Amino acid sequence: MLALIIFAVLVLFMFLGVNVGVSMGITAMLFFIGLDEFQNLTMIAQRMYSSTTGFTLLAIPFFIMAGNLMNMGGVTTRIFRFASTLVGHTWGGLAQVVIVAAVIMSGMCGAAVAEAAGLGMLAMKAMPERGFDKKFTAAITGAAATIGPVIPPSIPFVIYGSLAGVSIGQLFMAGFLPGFMMAFVMAVAVYFVSRKRGYPRQEKATLREILSSFKQAFLPLMAPVIIIGGIVSGFFTPTEASVVACVYALILGILVYKEIKWSDLPRIGWETILFTIRIMFIISVAGFFSWLLIYQRIPQAVITELTSLGTSANVVMAIFIFVLLVLGCFMEGIAVLVITIPVFMPIVAQYGIDPVQFGVVMILCSMIGLLTPPVGMCLYTMSSISGVPIGELSWELMPYIIGITLVTIVCAYSPGLVLWIPRMFG
Questions:
Q1: Domain of 84?
Q2: Gyration radius (Cα) of the chain, Å
């Protein structure tokens, strides 16, 4: 009962427009005061500080900066052109190009909003000129951007791994197949929608055009090879890989393509700092909020309640997915992770669910949240770039949301599929 009251108060604050991090902090303080546990208020600074000192969390600002550098340094443009020569002639044309470009870019930065912004600027210029509706263009770009945090490297996987004590390398490997499955279901949806609406296709590129665009995109295409190859081979850790991605993007943007000037770096750095602060503040306050849940033994109470119902692991997984999808409609994905992980992980262990598989399911659920109102970040990003109202864009996104949901269900009940690559690499 206490757990329901705590989460009800938290949701109430967020509905009133209070920042997610501030809502968690106020909720924890109010309950400690109400329970006459004033001594626990002295733990605020310690809990907030300890929540952000993990080595793995250093990857967050560097992956964010890598995404910003790639968007400004011409990397995104060259990848888009190369993808266009590969699949631009298929049904859906440039919409299929956006999906392929998102898959390639996902191996570089792992931030959905950064991908949505970078691809969105290109797609909203190119696709309407070729006869595509604005709302269709915005929808497929926003949906494709959610592939980024699933195919490694991934900022959400870094957060989940650090909070749940799970190998980030294994999480990265486990994200490959689900990420490509997402791309496949989106491509199928684009195919049928495009045929129904009669969207145009490009002429099939010649071998010379393909080779020319490949040559221009070769160095950007090497980024995923370097990053993922280094992690798999053990040459560097996922955290160190974020620094490698950042340095590589900086070299391409300044020295090779020369589309980034030295005077642009302060602005890129400031944008990175702002986005990082927002994420880290939520994580830090969540550390104090989690202390409230642990102190009140809420995870243990939930385990006891579920055990008394005689539910199986499959039923528990269904409950988790439902809770995550509902929370994703009202909270940012990162906030959902940091709030639910302390409650869910003991239950995951109790029912023998693999924590790597569960991490993939959690991230997939949070990707759906990025596309659903009222707080979907990719939804709002594409609405801002395209000028399409949230309501129209939300309806246009339905085929892709259904597709990602199907992938989530498959991953939830097919652990062998999710864990195949991590087990293959040991």
A1: 18-424
A2: 22
